[in-house]
Amino acid sequence: MGLHEQYIGELVQKGLRSGFSYIQTLRNSFGADPREVWNIFSRYKKEPETKKGWPNSYPEFPEPHPAYSQWRLTPPATKVILGNIEAEGPKEVCFLSCPILGTQFEREAKKKSVFLDIDTNTLSYVSTFANAVHYDINTEVPNSLRGRFDCVITDPPWYQDDIKLCVKRASDLVKTGGIIYFSIPGILTRPSVIEERKDLQAWLGRNNLLVLEMSPIAEYEVPPFEYMAYYDIPPFSGESWRVGEWVKLKKCGEAGEEIAANRQNTNWIEYSIAGKRVLLREKPEDKKKPSVSGLYDDSSLILRTVSKRSPLVQDVDIWTSRNAVLHISSGFTGVKAALDNIEKKDEEIAALSGCDKETIRKIKALISA
Question: What is residue 323's predicted lDDT score, i.e. its pLDDT?
Answer without folding.
Answer: 98
